[in-house]
Design goal:
Strand 12 and strand 13 form a beta hairpin. The protein is mostly beta strands. It is globular and about 50 Å long. It contains two helices and 31 strands. The strands form eight sheets. Strands 3-7-6-5-4 form a five-stranded antiparallel beta sheet, with no helix packed on it. A four-stranded antiparallel beta sheet has the order 8-9-10-11, with no helix packed on it.
Length: 405
Amino acid sequence: MNTPGGRSPLGMIALLTVGLWLTACGTGAGGAPSGAGSLPVRHHARQRKVTQKHTSPRSRHAHGLPISSMPRPSGMYWTDATTGYLAAQAAVYETTNGGSSWTTMYHSAGTLVSALTGAPSNGVWIATTHAILEISAEGQVIHSFPLPADATANQLVAPSATTLYIRSAGRIYALSGESRHWTDLSGSLGAVDAMAWLTPVEGYAAVGNTVWRTNSGGSSWSKVFSAPVVGPGWTSEFVANSVNSLWLLVSGGVESASQTGFVLWHGTAGGEQWTPITEEHYLAPTGYPTVHPEITVPIMQPGPVAAIGTTTVYFAGWEANRSSDWVFLTNASGAWKTSTIPIRSATPQFFASGPGGSYVSPAALSFVTDDMGFLVGQSTNGAGAMMETQTGGGAWSPVQWKEQK
Protein backbone atom coordinates (compact mmCIF):
# COMPACT_ATOMS: atom_id res chain seq x y z
CA MET A 1 0.00 0.00 0.00
CA ASN A 2 1.40 3.42 -0.92
CA THR A 3 1.92 6.35 1.41
CA PRO A 4 -1.48 7.78 2.45
CA GLY A 5 -2.67 11.16 1.27
CA GLY A 6 -4.98 13.81 2.49
CA ARG A 7 -3.61 14.18 6.02
CA SER A 8 -2.15 17.45 7.20
CA PRO A 9 1.31 17.01 8.82
CA LEU A 10 1.51 18.55 12.26
CA GLY A 11 5.26 18.74 12.58
CA MET A 12 8.45 16.99 11.63
CA ILE A 13 10.23 13.57 11.90
CA ALA A 14 13.75 14.00 10.75
CA LEU A 15 16.07 11.49 9.11
CA LEU A 16 19.69 12.61 9.19
CA THR A 17 22.14 10.59 7.07
CA VAL A 18 25.69 11.87 7.40
CA GLY A 19 28.33 10.08 5.31
CA LEU A 20 31.44 9.55 7.40
CA TRP A 21 30.48 12.60 9.43
CA LEU A 22 31.95 15.68 7.63
CA THR A 23 33.88 13.69 4.94
CA ALA A 24 32.53 15.03 1.67
CA CYS A 25 30.76 12.27 -0.22
CA GLY A 26 27.91 11.63 -2.60
CA THR A 27 24.78 9.73 -1.67
CA GLY A 28 25.92 6.16 -1.00
CA ALA A 29 25.09 3.26 1.25
CA GLY A 30 24.19 5.61 4.06
CA GLY A 31 22.60 8.23 1.81
CA ALA A 32 18.99 8.93 1.02
CA PRO A 33 17.55 6.38 -1.45
CA SER A 34 16.22 7.44 -4.81
CA GLY A 35 14.66 5.97 -7.93
CA ALA A 36 11.30 4.54 -8.98
CA GLY A 37 8.69 4.52 -6.26
CA SER A 38 10.27 7.32 -4.24
CA LEU A 39 8.07 10.01 -2.73
CA PRO A 40 8.28 13.54 -4.13
CA VAL A 41 10.90 15.42 -2.15
CA ARG A 42 11.53 19.03 -1.25
CA HIS A 43 15.05 20.46 -0.95
CA HIS A 44 16.08 23.09 1.55
CA ALA A 45 19.26 25.10 1.28
CA ARG A 46 21.72 24.40 4.04
CA GLN A 47 21.34 26.79 6.93
CA ARG A 48 24.17 28.74 8.50
CA LYS A 49 26.14 26.69 10.99
CA VAL A 50 24.98 27.17 14.56
CA THR A 51 27.40 28.74 17.01
CA GLN A 52 26.81 27.54 20.56
CA LYS A 53 26.96 30.18 23.27
CA HIS A 54 28.16 29.55 26.80
CA THR A 55 29.01 25.94 26.00
CA SER A 56 31.00 24.31 28.76
CA PRO A 57 32.96 21.08 28.22
CA ARG A 58 32.96 18.40 30.85
CA SER A 59 34.66 19.11 34.15
CA ARG A 60 36.18 16.05 35.80
CA HIS A 61 35.62 17.73 39.15
CA ALA A 62 32.02 18.75 38.57
CA HIS A 63 29.51 17.95 41.23
CA GLY A 64 26.81 15.41 40.50
CA LEU A 65 23.53 17.27 40.82
CA PRO A 66 21.00 16.00 43.33
CA ILE A 67 18.24 14.51 41.23
CA SER A 68 15.69 16.67 43.03
CA SER A 69 17.39 19.82 41.67
CA MET A 70 17.50 18.64 38.05
CA PRO A 71 14.42 19.93 36.17
CA ARG A 72 12.70 18.28 33.24
CA PRO A 73 14.79 15.19 32.38
CA SER A 74 14.10 14.35 28.74
CA GLY A 75 16.08 11.25 27.81
CA MET A 76 18.63 8.63 28.75
CA TYR A 77 21.17 6.54 26.82
CA TRP A 78 23.56 3.82 28.02
CA THR A 79 26.59 2.47 26.16
CA ASP A 80 27.25 -0.32 28.68
CA ALA A 81 26.55 -1.22 32.30
CA THR A 82 28.85 1.54 33.63
CA THR A 83 28.58 4.44 31.17
CA GLY A 84 25.34 6.33 30.64
CA TYR A 85 24.06 9.79 29.66
CA LEU A 86 21.06 11.79 30.85
CA ALA A 87 19.57 14.81 29.08
CA ALA A 88 17.97 17.37 31.40
CA GLN A 89 16.94 20.86 30.30
CA ALA A 90 20.11 22.68 29.11
CA ALA A 91 22.61 19.94 29.95
CA VAL A 92 23.81 16.39 29.39
CA TYR A 93 25.15 14.44 32.38
CA GLU A 94 27.41 11.39 32.29
CA THR A 95 28.00 8.51 34.69
CA THR A 96 30.94 6.12 34.45
CA ASN A 97 30.03 4.01 37.47
CA GLY A 98 26.59 2.65 36.67
CA GLY A 99 24.67 5.67 37.93
CA SER A 100 26.24 6.01 41.37
CA SER A 101 27.43 9.53 40.52
CA TRP A 102 27.16 11.92 37.57
CA THR A 103 29.19 14.79 36.04
CA THR A 104 28.20 17.59 33.67
CA MET A 105 29.29 16.54 30.19
CA TYR A 106 27.71 19.42 28.23
CA HIS A 107 25.87 22.61 29.12
CA SER A 108 24.60 25.51 27.03
CA ALA A 109 22.57 28.31 28.59
CA GLY A 110 19.43 29.34 26.77
CA THR A 111 18.83 26.05 24.99
CA LEU A 112 16.96 22.82 25.68
CA VAL A 113 18.34 19.31 25.20
CA SER A 114 15.31 17.30 24.08
CA ALA A 115 16.77 13.91 23.07
CA LEU A 116 20.02 11.96 22.76
CA THR A 117 21.53 8.72 21.44
CA GLY A 118 24.96 7.18 20.91
CA ALA A 119 27.47 8.58 18.38
CA PRO A 120 30.44 6.98 16.53
CA SER A 121 32.83 9.17 18.53
CA ASN A 122 31.93 7.14 21.65
CA GLY A 123 30.01 10.21 22.79
CA VAL A 124 26.42 11.17 22.04
CA TRP A 125 24.24 12.86 19.45
CA ILE A 126 21.95 15.39 21.13
CA ALA A 127 19.00 17.45 19.91
CA THR A 128 19.01 21.03 21.17
CA THR A 129 16.56 23.84 20.53
CA HIS A 130 18.02 24.73 17.13
CA ALA A 131 20.58 22.08 16.15
CA ILE A 132 21.75 18.49 16.20
CA LEU A 133 25.16 18.22 17.88
CA GLU A 134 27.67 15.40 18.13
CA ILE A 135 29.40 15.56 21.53
CA SER A 136 32.66 13.64 22.01
CA ALA A 137 33.43 11.46 25.01
CA GLU A 138 35.48 14.41 26.29
CA GLY A 139 32.49 16.75 26.16
CA GLN A 140 33.51 18.72 23.06
CA VAL A 141 31.14 19.67 20.21
CA ILE A 142 32.46 17.82 17.13
CA HIS A 143 29.68 18.53 14.64
CA SER A 144 26.74 20.92 14.54
CA PHE A 145 23.86 20.68 12.05
CA PRO A 146 21.04 23.24 12.13
CA LEU A 147 17.55 21.79 12.19
CA PRO A 148 15.73 22.17 8.86
CA ALA A 149 12.79 23.92 10.52
CA ASP A 150 12.06 25.72 13.76
CA ALA A 151 10.94 22.62 15.66
CA THR A 152 12.31 20.49 18.47
CA ALA A 153 13.54 16.95 17.79
CA ASN A 154 12.02 14.52 20.29
CA GLN A 155 13.67 11.22 19.31
CA LEU A 156 17.04 10.20 17.86
CA VAL A 157 17.86 6.73 16.51
CA ALA A 158 21.25 5.71 15.08
CA PRO A 159 20.95 2.29 13.38
CA SER A 160 24.51 2.50 12.01
CA ALA A 161 27.69 4.56 12.39
CA THR A 162 26.71 6.77 9.43
CA THR A 163 22.95 7.12 9.85
CA LEU A 164 20.98 9.17 12.36
CA TYR A 165 17.21 9.45 12.32
CA ILE A 166 15.42 12.33 14.01
CA ARG A 167 11.74 12.56 14.93
CA SER A 168 10.10 15.88 15.60
CA ALA A 169 6.32 16.11 15.50
CA GLY A 170 5.67 14.32 12.27
CA ARG A 171 8.03 14.97 9.35
CA ILE A 172 10.99 13.12 7.86
CA TYR A 173 14.09 14.84 6.48
CA ALA A 174 17.41 13.49 5.15
CA LEU A 175 20.76 15.28 5.17
CA SER A 176 23.42 13.87 2.83
CA GLY A 177 25.89 14.57 0.03
CA GLU A 178 28.39 17.37 -0.45
CA SER A 179 25.74 20.12 -0.37
CA ARG A 180 24.39 18.80 2.93
CA HIS A 181 20.87 20.05 2.18
CA TRP A 182 17.78 18.67 3.88
CA THR A 183 15.50 16.42 1.81
CA ASP A 184 11.91 16.06 2.98
CA LEU A 185 10.96 12.35 2.83
CA SER A 186 7.71 12.42 4.79
CA GLY A 187 5.28 13.03 1.94
CA SER A 188 1.76 12.87 3.35
CA LEU A 189 2.56 10.25 5.98
CA GLY A 190 1.03 12.43 8.69
CA ALA A 191 2.00 13.40 12.23
CA VAL A 192 4.27 10.59 13.41
CA ASP A 193 4.25 9.89 17.15
CA ALA A 194 7.11 7.37 17.29
CA MET A 195 9.61 5.50 15.16
CA ALA A 196 11.92 2.49 15.32
CA TRP A 197 14.73 1.56 12.93
CA LEU A 198 16.25 -1.91 12.66
CA THR A 199 18.69 -0.97 9.85
CA PRO A 200 19.42 2.25 7.94
CA VAL A 201 16.73 1.30 5.40
CA GLU A 202 14.23 -0.77 7.41
CA GLY A 203 12.08 1.20 9.83
CA TYR A 204 8.61 1.71 11.32
CA ALA A 205 6.56 4.82 12.02
CA ALA A 206 3.52 4.99 14.29
CA VAL A 207 0.88 7.57 13.36
CA GLY A 208 -1.99 7.64 15.84
CA ASN A 209 -3.27 4.06 15.91
CA THR A 210 -1.58 3.08 12.61
CA VAL A 211 1.83 1.49 11.91
CA TRP A 212 3.74 2.14 8.66
CA ARG A 213 6.83 0.29 7.42
CA THR A 214 9.61 1.31 5.05
CA ASN A 215 12.23 -0.88 3.41
CA SER A 216 13.74 2.03 1.47
CA GLY A 217 15.04 4.37 4.15
CA GLY A 218 11.82 6.39 4.15
CA SER A 219 11.40 7.05 0.42
CA SER A 220 8.15 5.05 0.49
CA TRP A 221 5.93 3.64 3.24
CA SER A 222 3.33 0.85 3.49
CA LYS A 223 0.58 0.56 6.09
CA VAL A 224 0.86 -2.71 8.01
CA PHE A 225 -1.55 -2.29 10.95
CA SER A 226 -4.35 -0.12 12.32
CA ALA A 227 -5.30 -0.80 15.94
CA PRO A 228 -9.10 -1.23 16.35
CA VAL A 229 -9.78 1.73 18.63
CA VAL A 230 -12.78 4.06 18.62
CA GLY A 231 -12.66 7.72 17.64
CA PRO A 232 -9.85 10.26 17.17
CA GLY A 233 -7.19 11.54 19.55
CA TRP A 234 -4.99 8.44 19.82
CA THR A 235 -1.20 8.68 20.02
CA SER A 236 1.42 5.96 20.12
CA GLU A 237 4.82 4.75 21.23
CA PHE A 238 6.75 2.18 19.23
CA VAL A 239 9.83 0.07 20.05
CA ALA A 240 11.30 -2.98 18.34
CA ASN A 241 13.57 -5.92 19.09
CA SER A 242 13.47 -7.32 15.53
CA VAL A 243 11.07 -7.81 12.63
CA ASN A 244 9.48 -10.57 14.71
CA SER A 245 9.16 -8.55 17.90
CA LEU A 246 7.53 -5.12 17.54
CA TRP A 247 5.71 -3.26 20.32
CA LEU A 248 3.01 -0.63 19.84
CA LEU A 249 1.42 1.31 22.72
CA VAL A 250 -1.72 3.18 21.59
CA SER A 251 -3.20 5.58 24.16
CA GLY A 252 -5.21 8.71 24.87
CA GLY A 253 -8.31 8.41 22.71
CA VAL A 254 -10.59 7.99 25.72
CA GLU A 255 -10.09 9.31 29.24
CA SER A 256 -11.80 9.64 32.61
CA ALA A 257 -10.95 11.56 35.76
CA SER A 258 -8.09 9.20 36.65
CA GLN A 259 -7.69 6.83 33.71
CA THR A 260 -6.28 7.12 30.21
CA GLY A 261 -7.24 4.45 27.71
CA PHE A 262 -4.43 2.36 26.22
CA VAL A 263 -3.64 -0.96 24.56
CA LEU A 264 -0.19 -2.55 24.30
CA TRP A 265 0.23 -4.65 21.13
CA HIS A 266 2.90 -7.16 20.07
CA GLY A 267 3.69 -7.41 16.35
CA THR A 268 5.43 -10.20 14.44
CA ALA A 269 6.20 -11.04 10.79
CA GLY A 270 7.42 -7.53 10.05
CA GLY A 271 4.23 -6.01 11.46
CA GLU A 272 1.78 -8.19 9.52
CA GLN A 273 0.44 -9.93 12.66
CA TRP A 274 -0.53 -8.27 15.96
CA THR A 275 -1.65 -9.52 19.38
CA PRO A 276 -3.09 -7.32 22.18
CA ILE A 277 -1.11 -7.88 25.39
CA THR A 278 -2.78 -5.63 27.97
CA GLU A 279 -5.09 -2.61 28.28
CA GLU A 280 -6.67 -0.08 30.62
CA HIS A 281 -9.68 -2.24 31.41
CA TYR A 282 -12.16 0.36 32.73
CA LEU A 283 -12.29 2.31 29.45
CA ALA A 284 -12.32 -0.74 27.16
CA PRO A 285 -16.08 -0.69 26.39
CA THR A 286 -15.91 2.84 24.96
CA GLY A 287 -12.38 2.91 23.57
CA TYR A 288 -11.58 -0.57 22.23
CA PRO A 289 -14.57 -2.89 22.72
CA THR A 290 -13.37 -5.59 20.29
CA VAL A 291 -9.91 -5.96 21.84
CA HIS A 292 -9.34 -8.99 24.09
CA PRO A 293 -5.85 -8.82 25.62
CA GLU A 294 -3.88 -11.67 27.11
CA ILE A 295 -3.40 -10.20 30.60
CA THR A 296 -4.77 -7.51 32.93
CA VAL A 297 -2.54 -5.11 34.88
CA PRO A 298 -3.53 -2.38 37.39
CA ILE A 299 -2.16 0.46 35.24
CA MET A 300 -4.43 3.49 34.85
CA GLN A 301 -2.00 5.93 33.19
CA PRO A 302 0.43 4.46 30.61
CA GLY A 303 4.10 5.32 30.78
CA PRO A 304 7.16 4.52 28.67
CA VAL A 305 8.02 1.31 26.83
CA ALA A 306 11.53 -0.09 26.27
CA ALA A 307 12.83 -3.14 24.42
CA ILE A 308 16.09 -5.09 24.79
CA GLY A 309 17.47 -8.29 23.29
CA THR A 310 15.46 -10.37 20.84
CA THR A 311 12.03 -10.46 22.51
CA THR A 312 12.08 -8.66 25.88
CA VAL A 313 9.92 -5.59 26.52
CA TYR A 314 9.48 -3.38 29.59
CA PHE A 315 6.39 -1.25 30.27
CA ALA A 316 5.66 1.05 33.21
CA GLY A 317 2.53 2.95 34.19
CA TRP A 318 0.88 4.74 37.10
CA GLU A 319 -1.66 3.17 39.44
CA ALA A 320 -3.51 6.21 40.77
CA ASN A 321 -5.96 4.59 43.21
CA ARG A 322 -3.48 2.75 45.38
CA SER A 323 -0.12 4.04 46.63
CA SER A 324 0.42 6.38 43.68
CA ASP A 325 3.44 4.26 42.78
CA TRP A 326 4.23 2.81 39.37
CA VAL A 327 3.44 -0.67 38.07
CA PHE A 328 6.07 -2.49 36.01
CA LEU A 329 5.36 -5.20 33.43
CA THR A 330 7.88 -7.39 31.59
CA ASN A 331 8.18 -10.69 29.73
CA ALA A 332 11.92 -11.00 30.40
CA SER A 333 11.57 -14.39 32.10
CA GLY A 334 9.51 -15.86 29.29
CA ALA A 335 6.21 -15.15 31.08
CA TRP A 336 4.46 -11.87 31.88
CA LYS A 337 5.20 -10.57 35.38
CA THR A 338 4.36 -7.36 37.25
CA SER A 339 6.06 -5.57 40.12
CA THR A 340 5.87 -2.19 41.89
CA ILE A 341 8.20 0.75 41.27
CA PRO A 342 7.89 2.56 44.63
CA ILE A 343 8.58 6.09 43.42
CA ARG A 344 6.30 7.82 45.93
CA SER A 345 6.73 5.59 48.95
CA ALA A 346 10.53 5.33 48.57
CA THR A 347 11.15 9.01 47.78
CA PRO A 348 8.53 11.13 49.62
CA GLN A 349 10.87 14.15 49.48
CA PHE A 350 10.21 14.36 45.73
CA PHE A 351 6.52 15.12 46.17
CA ALA A 352 4.49 18.14 47.20
CA SER A 353 1.80 17.66 49.80
CA GLY A 354 -1.84 17.93 48.83
CA PRO A 355 -3.63 17.21 45.58
CA GLY A 356 -1.45 16.91 42.49
CA GLY A 357 1.77 16.26 44.37
CA SER A 358 1.71 12.50 43.98
CA TYR A 359 2.32 11.95 40.28
CA VAL A 360 5.59 11.41 38.44
CA SER A 361 5.55 12.11 34.71
CA PRO A 362 8.08 9.71 33.16
CA ALA A 363 10.75 10.91 30.75
CA ALA A 364 12.58 7.67 30.01
CA LEU A 365 12.65 3.95 30.78
CA SER A 366 16.03 2.50 29.83
CA PHE A 367 17.51 -0.97 30.32
CA VAL A 368 21.24 -1.58 30.00
CA THR A 369 21.03 -5.36 30.42
CA ASP A 370 18.15 -7.74 31.08
CA ASP A 371 18.63 -7.03 34.80
CA MET A 372 19.85 -3.43 35.02
CA GLY A 373 17.42 -0.61 34.24
CA PHE A 374 16.39 2.94 35.13
CA LEU A 375 13.17 4.97 35.16
CA VAL A 376 13.54 8.75 35.30
CA GLY A 377 10.80 11.36 35.50
CA GLN A 378 9.54 14.54 37.12
CA SER A 379 6.89 14.98 39.78
CA THR A 380 4.13 17.53 39.62
CA ASN A 381 5.98 19.87 42.01
CA GLY A 382 8.96 20.07 39.65
CA ALA A 383 11.28 17.64 41.43
CA GLY A 384 13.13 14.97 39.51
CA ALA A 385 13.07 11.29 40.43
CA MET A 386 15.13 8.32 39.28
CA MET A 387 14.58 4.67 40.18
CA GLU A 388 16.96 1.78 39.52
CA THR A 389 16.59 -2.00 39.29
CA GLN A 390 19.31 -4.64 39.26
CA THR A 391 16.84 -7.54 39.15
CA GLY A 392 15.08 -7.05 35.83
CA GLY A 393 12.34 -4.99 37.48
CA GLY A 394 11.68 -7.35 40.38
CA ALA A 395 12.83 -4.73 42.91
CA TRP A 396 13.44 -0.98 42.54
CA SER A 397 15.28 1.62 44.65
CA PRO A 398 15.80 5.39 44.35
CA VAL A 399 19.08 6.70 42.90
CA GLN A 400 20.84 9.11 45.25
CA TRP A 401 23.15 11.40 43.32
CA LYS A 402 26.48 12.47 44.80
CA GLU A 403 29.72 14.22 43.89
CA GLN A 404 32.05 12.27 41.58
CA LYS A 405 35.63 12.32 42.85
